[in-house]
Design a protein that fits this description.
The chain has 191 residues and is of the alpha+beta class. Helix content is 20%, strand content 25%. It contains two helices and 13 strands; from the N terminus they run αββββββββαβββββ. This is Flagellar hook-length control protein.
Length: 191
């Protein structure tokens, strides 16, 4: 009868070391991984800036148009990557009186002038408000500039400034988004 030989026992110190090492490794791994499990996932910040865009919201019967923010607009961070090519919304403020049928308010003020859109421009080419204003002046004349979020006026003598949209004279194509400036948020292609 042959006996099956027993496997040799590992020395006691080796078993202790392996057991202790595995425990220590598990403890270190849990400490390293704990911050990842305890914090929510965060998107990496984009290296490409974004700009705020507006669109046509309504057309009046007397050559007026309402432009402004819609559900796609992000007035706080910008909604369109500066790698996009879109028309620039331009405004010429000339003191035009509020036409009959428009009652300006905070969210839909009167811009006291005329809007127009440039041909599409690359957002990255809008390196500053001055650069955007220069493009409007190039296409329409020295008294034109980029339209801004707060250009709508309301109240007695139009002394108050609102936001989100405004009425003006002019024509811009419907179904198109336009680069529009905002002076108090980092939501411009140059921010």
């Amino acid at each position: 009868m042959s006996k099956t030989p027993k496997a040799p026992k590992a020395p006691r110190h080796l078993r202790t070391w392996l057991h202790g090492g595995a425990t220590a490794l598990a403890a270190v791994a849990s400490l390293v991984l704990l911050p990842f499990a305890a914090s929510p996932a965060q998107a990496a910040p984009s290296a490409i800036p974004s700009g705020m865009t507006w669109t046509v919201l309504a057309k009046g019967t007397d050559g007026t148009i309402r432009v402004g923010a819609d559900s796609a607009t992000d007035a706080y961070n910008g909604d369109t990557a500066a790698t996009a090519t879109l028309p620039l919304l331009c405004l010429r403020v000339n003191g035009s009186a509020v036409p009959a049928g428009i009652t300006p308010d905070f969210y839909a003020g009167w811009a006291r002038g005329t809007v127009a859109a440039t041909p599409p421009v690359l957002g990255k080419s809008l390196t500053s408000r001055a650069a955007a204003d220069a493009i409007c002046a190039q296409y329409y004349g020295a008294d034109w500039r980029e339209a801004e979020f707060h250009d709508g006026r309301y109240g007695a003598n139009l002394e108050a400034s609102g936001g989100w949209s405004f009425w003006a004279y002019g024509y811009v194509p419907e179904g198109t988004r336009f680069w529009t400036a905002i002076n108090d948020q980092p939501a411009n292609p140059w921010n």
